[in-house]
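ping. complex inputs:
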Amino acid sequence: MKAHTHSRAPFEELADRVSALRSQMSFAEAAAKALEEIRPWQNFSMEELVSEIAASGTIAKQQDLDSTFGNPAVTLAHRGDFHVQLLSWRDGTTSIHEHAFEGAFCVLSGASVHTTYRFESDTAPLAAVMGGSLRFVNTELLEPGEVRSISRGAELIHSVFHLARPSISLVVRTSFDDTSRPQYEYVDGLAVDSFRRDALELRKLQLLDLSLDCYPNQQEKVVDGILASSSAWLAYRVLELSALRLGSFASLRHHLPALKAKHGEVAESFERAVLSRLRLANIVNRRCIVADEEHRFLLALLMLLPDRSSVLELVRERHPDLDAPELVVRWLRELAAKDCEARWGPNPLGFEIDDAAEEFLLCILLGDSIETAASKASQSPSRQAELALVVPRLSLLRPLFV
Ligand SMILES: [Fe+2]
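pong. complex structure:
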């Protein structure tokens, strides 16, 4: 019984400490400092917390009752204008996003790959959709005990990929969102207002979704109809939703010239952004059929990192005693040997890897050029040509060839 009254106590203590500290410093600094002092990851047991709340007659005032972020998102302490929120992650990966609140977060159990970016806009500032360059800044492995601050707006643009199932994180945050600027989600080439609530636009998207699902003969007519009078934001959303549902951008490409003529420079980024979304969706979906934490780690790196050297750097950080290139190839081989439902392809990777392809990838990871790697991997000129042509084009493996 004692455990049942105890496991929420550190979170109340944490909230009290934030209340005490915030008069001396910014809220984000107070949240980070309080997390480092109270160290809520120590002795944390999610099972114990679940049992306690299951048997309890009370709970703190809840934010995000529908658990739109975190599955579930449970408020553990509430102090009016800020709260302490526990987020449980099973297969969810956060998109690349910014925040309309400030605070700090940490991992309570499991581990997450945390990636930060910056965005250089080259179209109208604060529009519902902005074109620009999304630049990779840093990736790190976050484990219990590491605290990161959250600042409002574009100062912190990040994504978090959770390795363990579940991973549990804790956020100390202000309760009310700053609505003075759109809250952007980012994709390669675009910043998109993710909380835009134009009733007609949202209903059009929902009806397009219905059409894509149930009225395939009408899809084109519906897409044409919406695009003819759409804002740039809605045009992008239509292309993105259609491509994700169809699994391809090919049948949508013919809309681009008219969209560029109508919406100007921002539409130049639509194709790049949709292709990037398709690639990420493919990896996120595959991650759902992969349970092994090391394999999920590899998928996280392939999804998030820009190039081979950053992939290898993070593998070395997690496994300093092992040979990073060999480990990556071993994980790929293990994934290629697993069974999965036929709709995912021959294995969870979606493509076969034979001995020559393994050798080819190992040489690439060791720094060889595509031509040299192919010649080392096979004696046969036709097989060499095939390796050099096919493997670098596999979208899942793209960072290994940069
Ligand atoms: Fe975040």
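Residues 94, 97, 99, 158 surround fe (ii) ion (CB under 6 Å).
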